[in-house]
Design goal:
Arc Repressor Mutant, subunit A, 11 strands, 11 helices, 308 residues, alpha+beta, 3 domains, Endonuclease, Chain A
Length: 308
């Protein structure tokens, strides 16, 4: 079995590839002992034990009484639902954290390492300057409404971009094309809590309505960086190779609209087709992805880079 490496499907839910590999081994051999799992995976005993502890903490496995200890895998459908609920809980905590950060800023007013910039032209210029000054990395949280039009990433040598889009920003063809062209550096998430650009972890630009708050090195900027990393881990990767998958571009767009929370009727209006056509296409998508629910289809499509 250790020569077989199926593509991971649970990374978007916080399960590392090795944890998932051991979970698959347990699915193939329920009530396996550590010794049996060592033989099945070809891993060292300590490595198997470490990932077994991880599976137990994630709720993907349970230990049966008696000796030798045997491990039973959780039913996949129930396990995925549990992981999804935990992910949603983490997102809720992140949103609460964003609210707390905003309250902290307002309580301090203009004191400290903060500057308030007003006016669309001034805001756009500051976004541009921050990106131009970046030497290593630019982090972006983006969601509508767009007071300032998105600026094309500076493709300079040595400057990397990581962007988390709100799903609602990816329902128009232009935004979809831009996200796909960004490749693995772009991810998407439902309900991104704020709009943020951070250059080299030293300059943060947080947009609130028609104002731009510039934040220098501070505990607030540190907290925003931690918030970004949490959201990045929770977000679903996008891939420019999505068109190579089993779905047509129209299918991918339909699935993205469904993921953004639109009903079949709203999707039909946006795409200019009959609601029955949307329902028929959705059934084809479920079949193509070997999924029984839209949630399962969205998860699998996201892991394959098809959820654009």
């Amino acid at each position: 079995m250790h020569n077989y490496r199926p593509a991971p499907v649970l990374e978007a839910l916080g399960v590392c590839s090795e944890d998932e590999q051991l979970y698959r081994a347990l699915l193939a051999r329920p009530e396996a002992t550590t010794t049996e799992l060592v033989a099945d995976t070809g891993w060292a005993t300590a490595r198997v034990a470490r990932h077994l502890r991880s599976l137990l903490s994630l709720g993907l496995a349970s230990r049966t009484p008696g000796r030798p200890a045997r491990y039973t895998p959780a039913v996949p459908e129930a396990a995925v639902e549990l992981l999804a609920l935990r992910k949603q809980a983490a997102i809720v905590q992140a949103r609460l954290g964003a609210a707390a950060l905003t309250s902290e800023f307002r309580a301090r007013g203009d004191a400290g390492p903060f500057t308030v910039i007003r006016g669309q032209q001034a805001m756009a210029q500051r976004f541009y300057q921050a990106q131009q000054s970046a030497q290593t990395e630019v982090l972006v949280l983006d969601k509508p409404p767009f007071v300032v039009l998105p600026i094309e990433p500076r493709r300079a040598h040595g400057v990397s971009y990581r962007t988390v889009y709100d799903m609602s920003a990816l329902v128009e063809p232009a935004e979809i094309a831009a996200a796909r062209s960004a490749g693995p550096s772009c991810r998407m998430l439902r309900d991104v809590p704020l709009k943020l650009v951070v250059a080299d972890q030293r300059i943060g630009l947080m947009q609130t309505g028609h104002e731009l708050i510039e934040i220098g090195p501070s505990t607030l900027l540190d907290a925003l960086l931690r918030l970004f990393e949490l959201l990045w881990q929770q977000a679903t990767p996008l891939s420019p190779s999505a068109s190579d998958g089993p779905l047509t571009f129209e299918d991918q767009q339909l699935l993205a609209l469904a993921a953004a929370g639109l009903t079949d009727q709203a999707i039909a209006r946006r795409l200019g087709v009959a609601q029955r056509t949307v329902e028929r296409r959705m059934q084809r998508i479920l079949k193509a992805l070997d999924a029984t629910t839209r949630f399962q289809a969205g998860l699998r499509a996201g892991q394959r880079g098809l959820l654009t």
